[in-house]
Every structure is written in C-alpha cells, then in structure tokens.
Amino acid sequence: MTMDKKSPIKFTLTERDESVTITQWVYETLRSAVMNGQILPGRALTIRELATLLNVSPMPVREALRQLSAENALEIQGNRRVIVPKMTAMKFNELCEARIAIESHAAARALPYIDAARLAQLHSLDRLIDQAQENDDLEQISILNQNFHRLLYTANPHQVTLPLIESLWLQLGPFMRLATSKLEEHYLVDRHNEAMIAIEKKDAFALQLAISADIREGIAFANTPELLQRFIEQSRTDAS
Amino acid sequence: MTMDKKSPIKFTLTERDESVTITQWVYETLRSAVMNGQILPGRALTIRELATLLNVSPMPVREALRQLSAENALEIQGNRRVIVPKMTAMKFNELCEARIAIESHAAARALPYIDAARLAQLHSLDRLIDQAQENDDLEQISILNQNFHRLLYTANPHQVTLPLIESLWLQLGPFMRLATSKLEEHYLVDRHNEAMIAIEKKDAFALQLAISADIREGIAFANTPELLQRFIEQSRTDAS
DNA sequence: GAGGTTATTTTGTGATCACAAAATTAAAAA
DNA sequence: TTTTTAATTTTGTGATCACAAAATAACCTC
Q1: Domain count, chain B
Q2: Which end of chain B is more exposed for a tag (fewer CB within 10 A), N or C?
Q3: C1'-nearest nucleotide to the CA of A44
Q4: Of the candidates B215, B233, B213, the residue with the CA atom closest to the CA atom of residue B225
Q5: Which of B50, B69, B85 is the last residue of a domain?
Q6: Contact B199, B156 (CB under 8 A)
Q7: Cα(B8)–Cα(B54) distance, integer angstroms
Q8: Which intervals hold domain HTH gntR-type (chains A, B) (predicted)?
C-alpha cells in the first residue's frame, strides 16, 4: 500500500503585521493550527519543512517550536523530534478534570473583581455565541467560548492561572472543537447564563458549579465513549 | 551614588554531560538559578552576558531563555528584554492558592495509583527531609520537598498537571526557599505524615487536606506579612 | 549642577553555514 | 518476498555574522 509520506498541514496564513517579530507570527500560526486540529497527532514537525511552508527562514520556526513545546502544545521525543502529542482516553479525562479544577478556582478568585462593565461584556459575548451557534460556525463558537472564559478569569488583576489554563486548552485543542456539536448548544447557553447569574449574586459556589458544568458539557462527548473513541483512533493512526 | 551597573549572578556550574545538549544544560543551570533566587527579580538577562558567563555561544542561551519564559519563570518585557519577574504580595497569594487548588487535585487523582512500593519511597524521602532539617540545609530541604510532591503526583500515569505545578514552583522559587525556616519544621513533618496515613487509608479527602496544609505551612510566612514584605521590598528594588 | 540632544555601544532578531546524528532509501543477501 | 546491511539524505544543534532598534554614554546648552 502506498501512501503519502507526510500528511499535509493546512495553515490559515494571516497577513503578518510588520511591528511583530517573525517568530511571534510563526508561533501564532502554528498555535492556531494545533488548536484547530489542522495537524494530525503524531505528525512529525521539522524545522525546515515548516520554514518552507511558511516562507520564512528556519530560525523563527525553531524558536516557535521550542515555545510551543514548553507550553505542552507539542512534544519533544527522545530523538529530538517534535510531534503533536497523541491523545488517549485516560489523558483526555485527566485534561478535562484538570480544566475543571483550575478554571473553577480561577473563576472563584476572579469573582470579587467583576464589575458591571465586565459583566456587560460577558453578556454581549454570550449573545455572539448564540449567533455563532445559529450559524453552526464551530470554529467561531470555540473562539468565542474561550474569550468568554478568558474575560472571566482576567478580571482578577493578580491572576496567575491563565497561562496554565491556556496550556490545557491547547492540549485539548483539536478535541475541544469537535465537541461543540449542535446537540448540546442549549446546555452551553444555559451554563453561561447560570454563571452570569451567579456573578450578579456574587455567589462563588454557584459560579464554580456553572463553570464546571460548562466545561463538562462543552466537552460532553467525553461521556459518549464511542465518539471520543473515534477521534482517539484517528489520533492513534500513524501520521508520520 | 555609584553602584555596580549590574547585580552579579551566582551560578552553580555543574559538569556538563556530553550526552545532553548544551541548550539543555544551560536551561537547567538557569532554571536552578531562578529557583534558588540567585538572580534578583527585575534583573535584566541578556543573551550575550549569560553566554559569556556560562562559557557557551549565544545560541543555546537564546533557546533556554525562550523556554524559561514560556514556563513563566522569566518575563519578556515589551522591549523584548527578559527579566526575572518581580513579586507582589497579591501575586504571591495567588500563586499559593493556585498551588493548593492544583496540587490537592493532583494528589487526589494520583491516590488510586499509589502502591506499596511508592509509599515506601515516600517514607524514605520523608526521612531524608528529617535529616536535612536537622542539618539546617535549606536548599536540600527544598529539593527533597519538591521530590516528595513530584513522587506523589507522578503516581498517576496519565497525569497532566505536573508541568503546570512546576511552573508555579518556579514562580514561587526564590520565596519558597526562604520560607522553609526552622520555625515550622515540625509542621512539615506532621503534614507529610498525615498525607502518608491518608494514602494508606485511601482517603482522598484527608490527603487533600494534608497537602493543602503542607503547602500553606511550607510557605507559612505568607501569614506573617512583615517577613513577606521584606522579601517583596527586596524584589522591588531596581536590580538592573 | 540639571535637562535635553546627539553619538556610541549593546542588544535581540533573523539569516546562513558546518557538522554529527538520525532517518530514510537503496542494495544485497537469505 | 523478507530481512540485513550499506549508502544517501534529512534533521537538529550550535556557531557566526549582519542589522535595526534600544539602551547607555557623552556632550552641549542653560
């Protein structure tokens, strides 16, 4: 059986802002590719290949790869090869539970700092999510959902957990996106509303419950093993 | 008033293993310097200076700095300068609470996987900590204490939180070490024992309590504001 | 002296090259 | 065909150089 040597990588090449370093641009490009599952797990990423693909010199790619590895978005193998980590059912579960533990903590810590202005922003974000759901725009839903959580946690000006949370998002990346299926759209809306009601009441415990539920249902198919299994299978296939 | 332009950095230069890359060795050297507070917060780190100091070419330093920045051990300023982040009382508190939330979660998740062999290892580590405390070897205590926690969390073979936890340790680094003062040595011992008893009983809740208390007391001077303040002051002084 | 302007140095970024180790392909042997 | 071995290519690492931007020093004006 002959097959293509390497699975192709589909990048969404954005215009590069002159004020930003090439390294930064490469980093953002690779990051969103990982987050959106555009690179198959197990796929080996080589510096020169990416440099050619992105039309830059090897140096910025090298730095971006190291940073993404440090953020657990990529994995350095013993051979010094860099790959997109493969997923297992157990690891997936650990990532979800870690999200719940850390994010509900971050939410509770942010609560005292949320003022009316920020709450209004949260509401308007939630409305945008509704729209995106009507349009079935999965990628947009995913982005807006992240913005919602980020806006919540960053209310705390001394917050230190967001980088950790973003690392978990990155690791769940490709699988989180597929999760936001039409089936649970009403759940998501409900949970965000619950969260905002809890915020108005300054009820930390209710907020934690809402965030936990939102996460659990946002990646709800963790509880529908056959779906999860399908994606893990895909991830297990050799993508070198 | 004349003062030295740059505060000196005291490295503990270890022999470099040939099998390991220079970048890795530089990374480890810088990491432990940060962890042990051998670089004043606010101190600007330049590639060439470190390269000269460590007697390597700029390239490995460059990569190590980027990795440490990605791990939140260092901070990239707008000017693209890399510094050791400064500490504030609020940030310190956030870091402690984050540790408690994440580590007690990690401990609970590890509990089902802890077998007799690992428990024995934990016991022997605890004995080593006792010894180190008798010798007043603060650095050794700190290292062994970290090993104890790491050994606990890594019992879970699917664990994903250790990198996040290590990032928090790094950020607390210089301040964590100073915390392990003679005053609370009996607390530490007790908490580790409590943890091990909870493990034997497979009591997740008791384990979480023990770990939480251990962390809280290990950095107990968070509750003695005058001490904390002193170190933060030191951190605020311009160390450029 | 102090404040602002210019000159000088230092710095991060990015490009390119050399090289040993690893991966891949080709060839040979069973 | 299947397995071993050898030849070839590709890869990450590390070194060095160029350059623009930033930081620092020197200078001048008041």
Answers
A1: 2
A2: N
A3: D11
A4: B233
A5: B85
A6: no
A7: 13
A8: 20-87
Residues with Cβ < 8 Å from B19, sequence gap 6 or more? none
Hey, are the CB atoms on B156 and A94 less than 8 Å from each other? Answer: yes
What is the Cα–Cα distance from A33 to A40, expressed in whole angstroms?
10
Is B240 within a domain? no
Q: Do the Cβ atoms of A113 and A155 come closer than 8 Å?
A: yes
Question: Could you give the C-alpha distances from B192 to A24, A141, B130, B137, in angstroms and in order?
Answer: 44, 45, 11, 18
Among B173, B192, B198, B212, which residue's Cα sits nearest to residue B133? B192
Could you report the predicted ipTM of this complex, rounded to two decimals?
Answer: 0.90
User: Please, which positions of strand D sit below 7 A from a protein CB?
Assistant: 10-17, 22-25
Note the pLDDT tens digit of each residue in B180-226: 555 555 555 578 999 999 999 999 999 999 999 989 877 755 555 56
Per residue in B16-69, pLDDT (tens digit) is 888 899 999 999 999 999 988 889 888 999 999 999 999 999 999 999 999 999
My answer on whether B159 and B202 are in the same domain is: yes
Q: What gap in Å lies between CA B28 and CA B60, rounded to an integer?
A: 12
Is residue A62 within 8 Å of residue A185, measured between CB atoms? no
* Chain A neighbors of B158, CB-CB under 8 A: 88, 90-91, 93-94
Confirm if B41 and B235 have CB atoms less than 8 A apart: yes
| A221 phi/psi in degrees, rounded to 5 | -70, 0
Q: Is residue A4 part of a domain?
A: no
